[in-house]
Amino acid sequence: MFRTLRIRLVALNAAVLLLVLSVLCSWLYAHMRYRLFRETDEMLRMAESRMHAHHNQERPRPDHAEPEPDDRTIYLFWDAEGRLAGMQPDQAVPADAAGRLRNPADERAIRTVKIDGTLYRMLQFPASPGQNSPVGAATIGVLRSLEDVENTLRLLRVDIAAGIAGSVAVSVGAGLFLAGRALIPIRRSWEKQQQFVADASHELRTPAAIVQAQTEMLLRSPAHTIEQESPHIAVILKESKQMSKLLDDLLTLARSDSNQLQIQPSAFALDALLRELAAQFELLADAKGIAVSADIQEPLSLWGDEGRIRQLLIILLDNALKYTPPSGRIEIAGRYQSQFVYVSVTDNGSGIAKEDLPHVFERFYRGDKVRSRAEGGTGLGLSIARWIVDAHGGTIRMDSKVDQGTKVEVLFPRKKRTSV
C-alpha cells in the first residue's frame, strides 16, 4: 500500500513540476520569439527610414539610427504593374520568387514570407520620387532573413527540452527520497494503529470468551439456584466490568486522538485532592499490609481540569498499589518547584525492566508485569495518564529498577495556561 502511495506522490509531484515548467518555458519561448521578431522588424523600419531620409536629403532621426546595412537586408523594387524592377543585392533571391512577393493590396504591414525554404520578414511600402531605386519603381519591399532567429529559437527549444527533462528526472529522484521520508511517520502511525486494533481485539476476546463459557455453564444446569451458580456469576460480573473498563479507556483515547475531549480548567486545591486520594488508597493498602505516606505542601493549588487530574492520580496510585508486595510502602509528594507544580508517586514494588521502561506509556505494551492482564489492568492506564499530562502542558517521567521500585514524577505549569 505504501509503495503504491509513494509512487503516486512522486508521479503527482513530477506532473505538477512538469506542468509548471511547461508553462514557464512556453512563456519564455514566446517572449524570446517576440523579442527576436521585434528586433528584426525594427531593422526593417529603420531601412525604410533610410530610404526616406535619402529622399529628403537629411540624416535619419536618432531614434532611427542603425549600423551600416549588411548582406542580410534585401531590397526589392516593383513597378506600377507589379513586375519586379530590380533588387539589391543582385540575385539575392530568385527573381521568379521575388516577383511573387508583392502584396497587391499595397498594405504596409510586416509579414513573414518563405523563399526556397528560408523564412524572411518583409516590409512593403510605396516608393517616393528621388529615392535610390530603379527608374519606374512604384513599390519597395525590404526583406531580412530569419535564419539567425530560427537558429536561436531552435537552440532555445533544445535547451528548454533538456532543462525540463533534467528537472523532471531530478524531481523523480528527489521525490522518491522525500516521499519515502515523509511516509515514515505515516507508516509508523499506521502500524501503531494496526497494532492497537489487534491488541484491543485480543483484550476484548479473552473476557468475551470467558463470559460465553461461564454462561454456557449456567445453561447446562437450569435447575440450579443462584447460590449454587454464584461462582460462575461472579466470574461473569468480573469479566463484564473488565470489558466495560477497557471500552471506557479505548473511548477516552479515541476521543483524545480526535481532539474531541475538552479540558475544562479551573483553579482547585491540589493538596486537598492528594490528601483525599491518599486516605482512600490507605484503606485499600491496609488490606495488603502496605504503608501509604504523604508529604504535601499546603496550600498547593493547580490550574487544570480537576476531574482529569483525579483520574491521573488514581491511575498512578492504582499501579503503585498493584505492583507493591505486602509490607511495602507507597509515598505521595506534592509541592511547588520553581515555576511548576511537582507531584510524585513512589513505591518499592517489583519495578520495571530497563528495556521495558521506554515503552510503558505505549498502548497495550507488555513487559514482565507491566500492563499484565493478570493484575486486572487494561494496558491503557499510563497512555491515558500521559495524555492528561500533555493536555495540561506538563511532563511525566518514570524511573524504575527491577525489585527496587518505581517513581513517577509529574510537572505541571504553575501559572494559568490560556491554551488549555
Short description:
The protein is of the alpha+beta class and 420 residues long. It has seven helices and twelve strands.
Molecular structure report:
The protein has helices spanning 2-55, 95-99, 147-220, 230-257, 270-286, 306-322, 381-391, and strands spanning 73-79, 84-88, 110-115, 118-126, 137-145, 266-269, 291-296, 301-304, 329-337, 340-347, 395-401, 405-413. It is an alpha+beta fold and 420 residues long. The strands form 3 sheets. Strands 2-1-5-4-3 form a 5-stranded antiparallel β-sheet.
Q: Which helices and strands occur, and which strands form pairs?
A:
Blueprint: H1 2-55, E1 73-79, E2 84-88, H2 95-99, E3 110-115, E4 118-126, E5 137-145, H3 147-220, H4 230-257, E6 266-269, H5 270-286, E7 291-296, E8 301-304, H6 306-322, E9 329-337, E10 340-347, H7 381-391, E11 395-401, E12 405-413
Parallel strand pairs: 7-9
Antiparallel strand pairs: 1-2, 1-5, 3-4, 4-5, 6-8, 9-10, 10-12, 11-12
Entry keywords:
420 residues, elongated, alpha+beta, five-stranded mixed β-sheet, five-stranded antiparallel β-sheet, 7 helices
Category by helix and strand content: alpha+beta
Overall morphology: elongated
One letter per element, helices H and strands E, the order comes to HEEHEEEHHEHEEHEEHEE
- Oligomerization category of the chains in this entry: single chain
Largest sheet: 5 strands, antiparallel
- Strands across the major sheet, in which order? 2-1-5-4-3
Number of helical segments with 4 or more residues: 7
Average pLDDT figure = 81
Strand content: 15-25%
Fraction of residues in helix = 40-55%
pLDDT under 50 segments (min length 5)?
57-69
Number of strands: 12
**What's the end-to-end separation, in Å?**
38 Å
Rg computed from alpha carbons, rounded to a whole number of angstroms: 45 Å
